[in-house]
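Quick one, tokens below. Sequence please?
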């Protein structure tokens, strides 16, 4: 019989102190550069939050910044992946510089906890070129999220994607 403080559905021998409270993950989509890999948000039992990029790669550029977005990445009617600010948008929050264009990496986002409640996606942005390299829908922690591809989920762009500076996926 498990100890009283361990839920009965937890297998014996499981360390509940290291088991995440919740996670949310998604696959990167390419925008201005070929970008691939998985992004995972994890809320740990100690209330810390981490972002892990796994099997990750993008084009190496000197000033790549990471932004949390309150709106998802969608495939628009022109065939471009982009974040379209919706009516309940709270915008974008820069969370720091990408440490490497290739490989597994982890970032501590505990200080961004309040913003993560409304986060639906993450964008890698080349600050010098002013273009999104790749994005991923990661949804609020604990809720899976996928790229919307049906036309009914799009808001009509006010100008073409190329005029707005977006790139087609490669």
């Amino acid at each position: 019989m498990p100890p009283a403080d361990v839920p009965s559905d937890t297998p014996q021998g499981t360390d509940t102190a290291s088991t995440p409270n919740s996670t949310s993950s998604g696959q990167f989509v390419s925008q201005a550069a070929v970008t691939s890999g998985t992004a995972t948000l994890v809320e740990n039992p100690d209330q810390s939050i981490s972002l892990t990029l796994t099997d990750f790669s993008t084009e190496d550029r000197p000033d790549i910044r990471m932004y949390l977005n309150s709106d998802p990445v969608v495939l628009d009617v022109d065939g471009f992946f982009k974040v379209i600010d919706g009516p309940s948008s709270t915008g974008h929050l820069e969370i720091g510089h990408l440490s490497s264009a290739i490989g597994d990496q982890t970032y501590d986002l505990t200080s961004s906890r309040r913003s993560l409640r409304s986060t639906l996606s993450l964008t890698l942005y080349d600050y010098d070129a002013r273009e999104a390299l790749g994005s991923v829908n990661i949804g609020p922690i604990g809720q899976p999220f996928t790229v919307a591809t049906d036309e009914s989920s799009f808001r009509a762009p006010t100008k073409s994607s190329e005029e707005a500076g977006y790139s087609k996926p490669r």
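The chain has a mean pLDDT of 74. The helical segments are 113-116.
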